[in-house]
Design a protein that fits this description.
The protein has about 400 residues and is of the alpha/beta class. Helix content is about 40%, strand content about 25%. Strands 1, 2, 3, 4, 5, 14, 15 and 16 form an eight-stranded mixed beta sheet that branches. An eight-stranded parallel beta sheet has the order 6-7-8-9-10-11-12-13.
Length: about 400
């Protein structure tokens, strides 16, 4: 979904302060099509020039052959929710949680993040969850306005189709809220990610301490809500994404038919398709495929779905998301580089491809005129080590 809001308002909404000049030299610059030894100069938060050669001009930082690449762009992470609720029913003060989340992401090389917040509540004493997104979004936006964040933050609303209050909660957001992404979530038991109820039971009973009766109630409740609200909620969420000017994403597509429906809805990218069939259908429709970094690092899906490596080998992987492990994003990109024998293509999966999918044209590549978000990386064997992170030329980690 191409959006004038994304191409203007979001891309021009800068975060934090800017350093006057940052000069990194004697670096292996990861460009779009090659790795080049050279230097990069960032002036007033913007890449001014890139030059080839190993010279270290006076005043420049000698990177000693370390990689310098674009700052990572994260489209889907639940990490903020982990900080505000570090354990089930343990609520942490929100400002310290926001700042800890921001600092953690910066330390891993992420310079742009779309923070995923769930919209759509379930009113049940045992298996439900309540509304929180609007309040937390207000706090996040206020923190950004005060210049307290190290990196650039946007909102990603996870629209839970199986809920009772989805449309009411989405109505509380508007184009001014930096909602960059809306993803359509359908967690109906027996479908998509949780086709295997055994996997679902293991997940929710551990996370929520359910017994067998609680789990049975949970499954029945979700199925009833999907039957009652599913079609209206999906159509409403698509309409709300258009109203915000947000990119629409599908989630856990499993069949070609589901991907066909995603394409009709105007989906821009697919989050974590669960089968090779769905990924192939996405490719046929021109829908970018996102897979989770933990899936790639661990060698498979924790839910028993298709392996990210399988899709990468079949050239059906475009974007990587850290999902629930921020540090996995850079690590997975280097593992992908080994698999493809192509570092620029792998780094594009966590930078340029992500930015493009989200409608951001001012970042994600090392090129003159783009935003000065860069990271310095050294390797220890096959493990990347973050040596420095700059957001708009300002060092943040």
């Amino acid at each position: 979904m191409n959006s004038p809001f994304l191409s203007t308002h979001l891309a021009q909404a800068h975060d934090g302060s800017m350093s006057e000049v940052l000069h990194l030299a004697n670096a292996r610059l990861v460009l779009s099509d090659r790795v080049m030894t050279g230097q990069i100069v960032i002036i007033d938060g913007q890449i001014d020039r890139i030059e080839e050669g190993d010279a270290v001009p006076r005043g420049a930082v000698n990177c000693q052959g370390d990689y310098v690449m674009p700052g990572l762009v994260e489209l889907h992470t639940d990490n903020l929710e982990r900080h505000i609720e570090p354990r089930p029913d343990v609520n942490w003060p929100h400002l310290p949680a926001l700042l800890a989340h921001d600092a953690e992401l910066a330390s891993t090389g992420i310079t742009t993040v779309f923070d995923a917040l769930r919209v759509g509540s379930i009113h049940s004493s045992k298996t439900g969850y309540g509304e929180y997104a609007r309040k937390l979004a207000d706090e996040l936006l206020a923190t950004r306005a005060e210049g307290l964040f190290k990196i650039s933050h946007f909102l990603h609303l996870r629209a839970e189709i199986c809920s009772e209050t989805l449309l009411e909660e989405m109505a509380a957001f508007g184009p001014e809220d930096r909602v960059g992404i809306v993803s359509l979530m359908d967690h109906t038991p027996g479908e998509r990610q949780f086709r295997d109820l055994t996997s679902l039971k293991a997940y929710v009973t551990k996370k929520r301490g359910m017994n067998d009766a609680d789990f049975a109630e949970h499954v029945a409740n979700l199925k009833q809500m999907q039957a009652k609200y599913g079609a209206a909620h999906e159509a409403g969420a698509v309409a709300e994404a258009r109203r915000y000017g947000a990119v629409l994403a599908s989630h856990d597509d499993t069949t070609a038919d589901q991907v066909d429906k995603s394409a009709l809805n105007g989906v821009g990218f697919a989050e974590f398709p669960t089968t090779r069939e769905a990924a192939a259908a996405c490719r046929a429709h021109g829908i970018a495929v996102m897979m989770g970094a933990p899936n790639l690092v661990r060698g498979g899906s924790h839910s028993g779905n298709v392996a990210a490596r399988e899709l990468a080998e079949a050239e059906m992987l475009n974007i990587i998301s850290s999902d629930y492990v921020p540090a996995a994003l850079l690590l997975s990109a280097f593992q992908l580089a080994d698999l493809w024998d192509n570092l620029p293509a792998a780094i594009a999966c966590v930078t340029h491809n992500s930015a493009k999918a989200a409608g951001l044209s001012d970042r994600g590549r090392l090129a003159a005129g783009l935003r000065g978000d860069v990271i310095r990386v050294r390797t220890a064997g096959s493990t990347p080590l973050v040596r420095g992170v700059w957001s708009r030329g300002e060092r943040v980690a």
